[in-house]
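seq:
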Amino acid sequence: MRILAVSRGEEFSPNLVDNDARILAEVVNNLRLKGHDVTVISEKELSGDEQVDAIVQMCRSPRSIVALERMEGHGIRIINSPDGVKNCRREPLIRRFQDAGVESPRSVILKTSELLPVDLPLPCWVKRADGQTMQKADVCFCRTAQEVSEVLNDMSARGIHSAVVCQHLSGDLIKFYGVEGTDFFYWFYPLERGHSKFGYEEINGSSAGIRFDEAELRRICSAASHAVEVPVYGGDAIVSPDGSIRIIDFNDWPSFSPCREQAGKAISQLL
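struct:
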């Protein structure tokens, strides 16, 4: 097949530019070993007029998503689909999780300019709702309503019009990666591996090694993957002291840095 591989714009890879580039390179290498003709371009170079049979892509910008939607409309197979990428923006993500019954913390979607509800979940995380995290201020941990109000005011001043306020969950933080439709699934404790984007992992602290059902974790992640229509995924979950599991973050095509080789093979297998 003629395959187009599209890298993610650097502005959408805060502190992870090299890692994001490496996982795409791993997939490209696997596809070429299978005999496919693979062309690699950057997200900014994507025109939407490329003549190919399939696309593997890490795009995030609205312009790129529109171009991919046009190509998908012509019958080109795309992983992940542009609809799936849009579903991973926090507002649709929360709504789809709620509709599908995916285990996740209590969340409230707010306009950054509106008054706070009286039943605000505290402590909590305030996250921009219109897209993925692009800088540290896009996700903030808040203990009081006053802190929430200050974060929302800052987001409003930066032109962010909506936010998701998520209940903070105590317990062990774990990071997971999966490629739906294959045997690949991987999880680990990020703080113990020194794996961090902005240092938020320290809020929950070191893991206590709470026992949980790994098959249940994979089931929940699979349900999340189907809910947002993203087969190549990663995210974070909390294991509560009673062993229950809830997803607190979910992303399309992460960096897979601790398991890049296995993930690269699985993604090429999926295509």
